[in-house]
């Protein structure tokens, strides 16, 4: 990796572990800043070193607590602008509110667009994120957006397991394109879990598997795991259809409510996620496997800092 000594890399409170890994991969130290919260929830940020004229990168996921972490980004951008930063680049490994990307019902907000507007209004010059829930979110910004993909190192992990007769499974019809992309990298067929009931199921009477999974190792693929309902239901349906070992794979481990407990008690041999969201100790379980997104972010940030194309990260892959 090229010399990154002139870069200024800041971590806020959502995922300092990932920020430290990115800094280590880039061969730099995290820059000094203090982020404090007053008793009433107000945020105070102090930048403890000069950043005048520097290219600054701020790392923060919009994850639980979503609104608090988002406000930290906004206050930090304002602080950096007032400290005369050369450019302000916001690294958002997990872009919260991404599922609110359109009006599905009358009088409904498009919150993902509102978030984009506020980030730009605060003064960001660029956004770097991973596996946005909907690709059109890039168009919500009028500044450059670098959309990184976890699918390549996820595919490399499953290749390393040397699984036989692999089938990539979409947990519903909406995720077929994602499943097809992973299947192409693994040179595997796909299957789909067809769920006819719109509510979360505790049984599999209305779920059917489209595709041949009998005796095969299955990878249920999605961009995120929130409550875990779709994933758990998919595992039950696949096991009923005669699948062999079943793996879950997703980029963002939101793990709301009892998701971790439900996944731990499910049919999955492994639940493979990334560290775009920090997973607290109480939500970790024996089948959980966390892949680090730090190498991908580190390479991307280095390329951006040196004004080189981020596309070089993906040129050896075809999906």
Automatic annotation (TrEMBL):
Entry EC number(s): 2.7.6.1
GO biological process entries: 5-phosphoribose 1-diphosphate biosynthetic process; purine nucleotide biosynthetic process
Tagged with keyword Transmembrane: no
Annotated cofactor note: Binds 2 Mg(2+) ions per subunit.
GO molecular function, one term: kinase activity
Annotated ranges, domain Ribose-phosphate pyrophosphokinase N-terminal: 7-123
Binding site for Mg(2+): 133, 172
SMART domains cross-referenced by the UniProt entry: Pribosyltran_N (SM01400)
Subcellular location: Cytoplasm
GO CC annotation: cytoplasm; ribose phosphate diphosphokinase complex
Alphabetical keyword list: ATP-binding, Cytoplasm, Kinase, Magnesium, Metal-binding, Nucleotide biosynthesis, Nucleotide-binding, Transferase
CDD domains linked: PRTases_typeI
Binding positions for ATP per the UniProt entry: 40-42
Listed Pfam families: Pribosyl_synth (PF14572), Pribosyltran_N (PF13793)
Family: Belongs to the ribose-phosphate pyrophosphokinase family. Class I subfamily.
Role noted for this protein: Involved in the biosynthesis of the central metabolite phospho-alpha-D-ribosyl-1-pyrophosphate (PRPP) via the transfer of pyrophosphoryl group from ATP to 1-hydroxyl of ribose-5-phosphate (Rib-5-P).
Protein name stated in the entry: Ribose-phosphate pyrophosphokinase
Organism: Ligilactobacillus hayakitensis DSM 18933 = JCM 14209
Taxon lineage: Bacteria, Bacillati, Bacillota, Bacilli, Lactobacillales
Gene (UniProt): prs
């Amino acid at each position: 990796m090229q010399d990154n000594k002139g870069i200024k890399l800041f971590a806020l409170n959502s995922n300092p572990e990932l920020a430290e890994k990115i800094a280590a991969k880039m061969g730099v130290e995290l820059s000094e800043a203090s982020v404090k919260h007053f008793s009433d929830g107000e945020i105070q940020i102090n930048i403890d070193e000069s950043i005048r004229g520097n290219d600054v990168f701020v790392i923060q996921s919009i994850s639980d607590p979503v609104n608090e972490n988002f406000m930290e980004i906004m206050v930090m951008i304002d602080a950096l602008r007032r400290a005369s930063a050369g450019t302000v680049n916001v690294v958002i490994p997990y872009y919260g509110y991404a599922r609110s990307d359109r009006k599905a019902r009358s009088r409904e907000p498009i919150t993902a667009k509102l978030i984009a507007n506020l980030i730009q209004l605060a003064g960001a010059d660029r956004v770097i994120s991973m596996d946005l829930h909907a690709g059109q979110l890039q168009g919500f910004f009028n500044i450059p957006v670098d959309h990184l993909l976890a699918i390549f190192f996820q595919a490399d992990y499953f290749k390393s397991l040397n699984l036989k007769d692999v089938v990539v499974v979409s947990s519903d019809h909406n995720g077929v394109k994602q499943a097809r992309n992973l299947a192409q990298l693994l040179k595997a067929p796909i299957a789909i879990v067809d769920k006819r009931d719109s509510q979360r199921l505790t049984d599999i009477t209305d779920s059917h598997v489209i595709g041949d999974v009998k005796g095969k190792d299955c990878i249920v693929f999605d961009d995120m795991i929130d409550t875990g309902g779709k994933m758990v239901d998919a595992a039950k349906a696949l096991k009923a259809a005669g699948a062999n070992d079943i793996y879950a794979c997703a980029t963002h481990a939101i793990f709301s409510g009892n998701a971790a407990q439900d996944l731990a008690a499910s049919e999955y041999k492994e639940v493979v996620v990334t560290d775009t969201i920090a997973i607290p100790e109480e939500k970790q379980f024996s089948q959980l496997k966390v892949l680090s997104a730090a190498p991908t972010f580190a390479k991307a940030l280095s390329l951006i800092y040196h004004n080189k194309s981020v596309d070089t990260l993906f040129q050896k892959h075809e999906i």
